[in-house]
Amino acid sequence: MKTVTIREAKNRLAELAREVERGETIVVTRNGSPAVELTPYRRRKGLRLEAIDEFRRKHRIDAIVSCIADDFDDPLPEDRALISHPLAANT
Questions:
Q1: d(C-alpha 23, C-alpha 27), whole Å
Q2: What number does CATH give the domain 2-38?
Q3: pLDDT tens figures, 11-56
Q4: How many other CB atoms are found less than 10 A from the CB of residue 28?
């Protein structure tokens, strides 16, 4: 990992950008302390909310979840909460 001062980064930005594009990580310091980290751009992976809308339109789905019961997040009755679960038995 390469370290440069903020002044160097300002003067050599294009050169540093090329290094970062090649995979290098560069830490930019201000008064000797790390201030900024330049890293290669990586497309974010994860949930794309617009993909949900595309899926709904494509498959003609009105709603992903049509309704949620009013007591959905209420605590379970005690007799239900005490039922052992195979994965919980090891804890």
A1: 13
A2: 3.40.1620
A3: 999 999 999 999 999 999 999 999 999 999 988 777 788 888 888 8
A4: 19
